[in-house]
Amino acid sequence: MLFWLKKVAGYWLMPLPLSVALIIGGVVLMRFTRRKRLGRGFALVGGLWLLVCSNSGIGTWFVRGLEAEYPSQPTLTAGAPLPDDLARCEFVVVLGGGNTHAPEWPANNQLSASALSRIVEGVRLVRQMPQARLIVSGPNDAAIGGPSHARLLADVAVSLGVPRERILEISSARDTEQEAVAIRALAGDAPVALVTSAWHLPRAMALCRRQGIDAVACPADYAGRDIHPRFFDFFTWNVGGLERSTKAVYEVIGATWSQLRGKT
């Protein structure tokens, strides 16, 4: 029950649903009640919040604040020594990122853009780390059917050259908090290279460390492609800006929820 309550509340706090709800609520108040001033306030706040979150520069600024917390892992060359933090890792863990169910498509085309970027980064690392095993995570979504998300990630890893016997699957965890618990059960005290989207990594690292996991941050799937917003981005409004703002707001809400419950 708590899981679904979190999902519903989180959805309605996202920039687009919240803005639309405020605007519609404001119009209803202005049109059908005497509380016209309150209605105008709701509509104005909703419109301004949508305008702010759709701005390309602000969206980049929001998400880069999260993505800049952990540096990317360097290019790895076959035969060259691994960075010290990676060399000690016994597992490479790729967190789930969503998929669709289309049996006629290969597994890589069923993954979301975030999930595909994460598994490519995980494979890149594990192929240079012969001592490490690959852990992939993601549940089976009963609403869309098909194999679990973890199985699709594993299938993509195999297609990219990782032997299936090197892969472990976590298919029961429904969110990052549950993934951290499952990773701890599999890896124990062994160091792990944790792969997820760069904007998701601060919260994921905090949850893993709360479980006592010795995690090395390995960011993928950067949403803020520009390290710093360009001047003219602050005069541009588009869906990309809204998407980046949504990712940032989602992570801030998730981190706050975890902190309030003492999970980080």
From TrEMBL:
<dbReference type="GO" id="GO:0005886">
    <property type="term" value="C:plasma membrane"/>
</dbReference>
<dbReference type="GO" id="GO:0043164">
    <property type="term" value="P:Gram-negative-bacterium-type cell wall biogenesis"/>
</dbReference>
<dbReference type="InterPro" id="IPR014729">
    <property type="entry name" value="Rossmann-like_a/b/a_fold"/>
</dbReference>
<feature type="transmembrane region" description="Helical">
    <location>
        <begin position="42"/>
        <end position="63"/>
    </location>
</feature>
<dbReference type="Pfam" id="PF02698">
    <property type="entry name" value="DUF218"/>
</dbReference>
<feature type="transmembrane region" description="Helical">
    <location>
        <begin position="12"/>
        <end position="30"/>
    </location>
</feature>
<keyword id="KW-1133">Transmembrane helix</keyword>
<keyword id="KW-0812">Transmembrane</keyword>
<keyword id="KW-0472">Membrane</keyword>
<dbReference type="GO" id="GO:0000270">
    <property type="term" value="P:peptidoglycan metabolic process"/>
</dbReference>
<protein>
    <recommendedName>
        <fullName>DUF218 domain-containing protein</fullName>
    </recommendedName>
</protein>
<feature type="domain" description="DUF218">
    <location>
        <begin position="91"/>
        <end position="254"/>
    </location>
</feature>
<dbReference type="InterPro" id="IPR003848">
    <property type="entry name" value="DUF218"/>
</dbReference>
<dbReference type="InterPro" id="IPR051599">
    <property type="entry name" value="Cell_Envelope_Assoc"/>
</dbReference>
